[in-house]
Prior knowledge:
Blueprint: H1 2-18, E1 40-41, E2 48-49, E3 65-71, E4 76-81, E5 87-91, E6 102-107, E7 110-115, E8 118-123, H2 127-134
Antiparallel strand pairs: 1-2, 3-4, 4-5, 6-7, 7-8
Amino acid sequence: MKTKFVSILSLLLLASLASVSYAAENAFGALPSTNNNSSQASSLSSDPIDQSLHPLVQNTIRSNTIIGIMISPSMKTAFIRTLTGDEYFVGIGDKLGNANGTITGINYEGIEVTEDSNVTSLAVRNRSVSNEKSE
Length: 135
């Protein structure tokens, strides 16, 4: 089991290196806030999307997929895929969603995002989890 976990973690790290998409110069840093008004219609939603915003804050929280969670005694990090297919590492305090949501919790099951006073949970969704349950 430990070997399988190490293999999965290694694959996640290799996938993140192969996919060259960064939240900022520091992938673990906070997202910049911008207030530009240029917008473009999305093919999946009738709401306009501000393309000048960072991909993590362009769409709703539920449009993102949590691919993996990494928890150590000093840091909690989630690996997330946006609706457009971009992949990012995020941490507690990072912005997520188009309604000013902030990641307020990361645990072994997924992440919690708070928008105003509403908490939304996103569970980890990856193939290894679903394959283990079916065996």
